[in-house]
């Protein structure tokens, strides 16, 4: 999985390891949780992605479950959004996910088994003022997953999307207490999500119980995105 050093990714790595998976997670800064194989990798660098897969394959074998979680925001209104703001977000969230999925797919096809999970966002479906780049990257993951579901379904490989709402992590810590309260009021379940809410859904998608689910977008957002 990508981005296992903190936040949602860290929670997913821990949860998958607890469920009995052998887990490898990428990090750029920081470290990965205990019991997880850490590999340093920036998903925007093709050479680092290739090297990370080679490292993982020699440490624990081919990747059967891929979770593309690494993501960033560079929020600002359209008129102020620079090419760099756009490019960085697309390069990390969308191209990075494409790159790891492409690299993981070949051994999955060969082994006639694979689970690919993309971590999108409720914003990918609803849109969000100030997040044109981020929302485009996150809805792009839906088109990508559904295309992969069609391409790889006959080979036993599923591709699904998890669309979290607002989750308490570093990414949302910047929002401030008032804004968080305002968002919580719009969420039918009345609270922000926890890392474990998301990790539990990923664990399910990686499990045998989810073997007949592909091309799905699973909202884990307390009801925030209903109807989208
Ligand atoms: P954090 O900022 O806490 O963590 C992001 C993770 O992505 C870190 O592990 C970071 O690694 C990694 N990462 C970022 N850029 C790169 C890169 N170029 N190459 C490799 N790894 C990278 O974010 P969250 O845990 O909140 O978010 C995780 C995912 O969930 C993201 O895709 C985000 O868009 C999505 N999401 C989050 C929501 C939220 O409310 N928090 C809501 C909806 C979706 P490092 O720190 O080592 O650089």
Structure characterization notes:
The chain has 228 residues and is an alpha/beta fold. The protein is built from 8 helices and 6 strands; from the N terminus they run αββαβαβααβαααβ. β3 (65-68), α3 and β4 (114-119) form a beta-alpha-beta unit. α1 (7-18) crosses α8, α2 runs parallel beside α3 and α3 (83-111) packs parallel to α5 (132-152). It is globular. The two termini are 27 Å apart. The chain binds NADPH dihydro-nicotinamide-adenine-dinucleotide phosphate. Residues 2-3, 5-9, 26-30, 41-44, 69-72, 92, 96, 119, 121, 164, 166-167, 169-172 line the site of NADPH dihydro-nicotinamide-adenine-dinucleotide phosphate (NDP).
In short:
With 228 residues, the protein is α/β, with parallel strands linked by helices.
Strand content of the residues, in percent? Answer: 5-15%
Radius of gyration: 17 Å
Main CATH class of the domain at 63-220: Alpha Beta
Structural class: alpha/beta
Q: Please list the strands of the largest sheet in the order they lie side by side.
A: 3-4-5-6
How far apart lie the N and C ends?
Answer: 27 Å
Question: What name goes with the CATH superfamily of the domain at 63-220?
Answer: NAD(P)-binding Rossmann-like Domain
Element-level helix/strand string: HEEHEHEHHEHHHE
Tell me the major beta sheet. Answer: 4 strands, parallel
Bound molecules: NADPH dihydro-nicotinamide-adenine-dinucleotide phosphate
Indicate the CATH topology of the domain at 63-220: Rossmann fold
- Unreliable sequence segments: none
Tally of helical runs? 8
The counted number of beta strands is 6
Q: Which descriptor suits the 3D outline? A: globular
Average of pLDDT: 96
CATH architecture of the domain at 63-220: 3-Layer(aba) Sandwich
Helix proportion of residues, in percent? 40-55%
């Amino acid at each position: 999985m990508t981005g296992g050093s903190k936040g949602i990714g860290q929670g997913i790595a821990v949860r998958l390891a607890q469920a009995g998976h052998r887990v490898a997670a990428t990090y750029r800064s920081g470290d990965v949780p205990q019991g997880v194989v850490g590999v340093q990798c920036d998903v925007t660098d093709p050479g680092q992605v290739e090297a990370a897969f080679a490292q993982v394959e020699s440490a624990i074998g081919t990747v059967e479950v891929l979770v593309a979680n690494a993501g960033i925001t560079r929020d600002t209104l359209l008129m102020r959004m620079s090419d760099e703001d756009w490019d960085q977000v697309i390069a990390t969230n969308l191209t990075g996910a494409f790159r790891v999925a492409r690299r993981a797919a070949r051994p999955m096809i060969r082994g006639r088994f694979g689970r690919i999970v993309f971590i999108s966002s409720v914003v990918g479906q609803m849109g969000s003022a100030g997040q044109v780049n981020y929302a485009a990257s996150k809805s792009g993951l839906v088109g990508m997953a559904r295309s992969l579901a069609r391409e790889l379904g006959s080979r036993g490989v599923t591709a699904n999307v998890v669309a979290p709402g607002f989750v308490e992590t570093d990414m949302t810590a910047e929002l401030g207490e008032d804004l968080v309260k305002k968002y919580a009021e719009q969420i039918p379940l009345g609270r922000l999500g926890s890392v474990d809410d998301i990790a539990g859904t990923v664990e399910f998608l990686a499990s045998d119980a989810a073997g007949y689910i592909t091309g799905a977008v699973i909202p884990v957002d307390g009801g925030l995105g209903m109807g989208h």
